Amino acid sequence: MTVHFTWFHERFSVLPPDANEETVRIYARAYIMMLLSTQLFGDKSANRVHIRWLPFVANLDEMGRYSWGSAALAWLYRCMCRVANRNVTNHAMKVDSFFINLVTHSNRGGLQQSNGTVHG
Asked: Domain Aminotransferase-like plant mobile spans what residues (predicted)?
């Protein structure tokens, strides 16, 4: 389940000047969800915010206890493995052609530079 990024942006882009503490927390949760969905754990649509992050932002005080770096690295490796597997047609994220070449050529024994030199 996802929500369009534009809805989040229109609804939560400007904090009201008279916002109380609970309103600030709501806007903070929305901003963090946008960051998680578009920057840290992006997918190929790049315009949707996934609601899978709701349980993680429910308690802002607990968010610092999660290992976000490890999770992001695991997500990246998962995406790279899916790209390397030619049988998978539904990739989780857009992957730069450099990474596709990196995975493809490293599986063949090395990376080839433009001058023809093979490293590996």
From this structure: 3-92
